[in-house]
Amino acid sequence: MGWLPWCVAGVSLLLAGAKLRADEDSVVRVFIFAGQSNMVGSDSKIGDIGRFPPFAGLDQPQPAVRFSYCLGREEKLESAGWESLRPVYNVVGPELSFGREVSSRIGAPIAIIKIAAGGTHLGGDWNPDEPSGFRLYPLALQRVREALGQLDSQGVRWRLEGFMWHQGENDMFEPEYMASYGRNLKNFIACWRRDLGAPELRFFIGELCTKTIWGMDLRPRMYAISLGQREVADADPLVDYVPTSHAGVEIGGGAGLHYHYGTLGQLEHGLCYARAWLQATGQWQRESRPLSEWPYAAGSKVRLFVLAGHRNMEGERAFVQDLAGLPGGLQLLEADQRVACRYSLGGGYTLSNGWEPLGPFGEYSTFGPELSFAASLKRAGVENMAIAKFTHSGSQIIDWTPAGSEARGRNLYPAFLEFVRKSVQDLRDRGHEVELAGICYHVGENDMSWGPFRQGAPERVLSLVRSLRQDLQQPQLRWYISQQLPSDHESVNRVDVMSRMSEVLAGESGVVYLRDLDLPAQREQLVLDAAGVVRLGEELANGVQAGVSDGQQR
């Protein structure tokens, strides 16, 4: 009969554990969002959310998420206590997608406190010791304390979980602030932890997006801010540097470039913070996409195609939901277990788990031209094909050259070279003869919208071609360089980049330049939608199949 007390005790322990878990799950996780215009959500529009299918419904309130906010400088938009999370004054901020994503991943309730104002400095407005200008540090501290006090008065148990910070564009215009950004950020973090009595508070520092116009014309200054941010993140285990340059950016201005994320970018921006927090707390898990079996016969020859490029090769605005409505789109949506694929997207932000089946694998329910490219080649009888895709939609062509730029941390060439080498070697290690059948590179879209980069594009592309051939020891490696019609604006049209690209590439054996692509009309400059990306893949496949002679243009 001695087993009965032990049984009762065991049940009691299980019940006690369940109660503790239930109690823990009831604690509200509080996140603070702060910064300047790209934290506010400037140049975004609620009405545009419907254009981006993965984010449908985020124009509506989220009653399960508490929200307290103070936005703006002179004239502030302020919540009356806690409200349901929702868009404020027609603006889409990163908190909307963050709130939905985190809520769907954890069992506990969350709350967001947001204080942000455009055109503000860490060295001045946000300075904890000597705030100037709009004195945002004391204002933000007061708002956070008030919001937390309201939870206390309501009997709500809460815990500070993370501080999301996106700021720095304005500091790069002030030499003193730019040079001291790392020191100022370290002090900023220390003061928040001290003033909130939260010494273990995690901080998530958002990268300044290099896809904006400032990512080109202010490249050295933006890089200086990033070095300060990374210095702090590297030294503090509770600070994470959050990549955001792969996120969308608003299309605006005469030549198409903009300073702000805009609607799509803000929605993806929020998911960047959600992923960073979930990873930091051990709760992140990507969808598994395994090959059911290795698709190639033992000892067979595999033809490997490498696809590389920027915004449209990555598929920034090509959504799988839109693909389903295109002719043949449903077939492209299905994972193709006969084609092995590996990839690195967003400069390494999204990586395949070794070789996966070809199919949509974009970070935000997006896809690239690889789907229609492979389908077209298969229809033409190409067998035993593998695809390796390397992209960074936040890059410019200079980042792909061995020389790179003064922003050394943005240099992609070494990673690209290693990616191609590893793709080939892995297939060889599996016992295959490998034919590196060609590199398909889509010319950088952003480069075409700024005069100096448009001027230098042809020589930089040629540098990439020659360097990769030399470093891979394949002097006759085929290249297929595709280019859509460049930005059409008086500020850049003086550079006839397509004619110059033709001249520069014509003298390079084994390079096919695919220009004036037969792409469908697009809503905006620079970026292609689902139909445009499908056509791009088909055009690349046509170029491969055409068997044109060296130097011939299409």
What distinguishing features does this structure have?
17 helices, 8-stranded mixed beta sheet, 2 domains, Rossmann fold, disordered C terminus, globular, 554 residues, alpha/beta
Shape type: globular
**Individual helix count:** 17
Give the strand tally. Answer: 16
- Rg calculated over all Cα atoms: 25 Å
> CATH topology of the largest domain, which one?
Rossmann fold
Superfamily (CATH H level) name of the largest domain: SGNH hydrolase
The name of the CATH architecture of the largest domain is 3-Layer(aba) Sandwich
Poorly predicted runs are: 11-20, 548-554
CATH class of the largest domain: Alpha Beta
Binned, the helix content reads 25-40%
What is this structure, in a nutshell?
The chain has 554 residues and is an alpha/beta fold.
Describe, in plain words, how this protein is organized in 3D.
There is one protein chain. It is built from 17 helices and 16 strands. The protein has 554 residues and is α/β, with parallel strands linked by helices. It has two domains: 24-280, Rossmann fold, CATH 3.40.50; 301-546, 3-Layer(aba) Sandwich (Rossmann fold), CATH 3.40.50.1110. Strands 1, 2, 3, 4, 5, 6, 7 and 8 form an eight-stranded mixed beta sheet that branches. Strands 9, 10, 11, 12, 13, 14, 15 and 16 form an eight-stranded mixed beta sheet that branches. Helix 15 runs parallel beside helix 16 (497-506). The radius of gyration is 25 Å and the shape is globular. Residues 11-20 and 548-554 have low confidence and may be disordered.
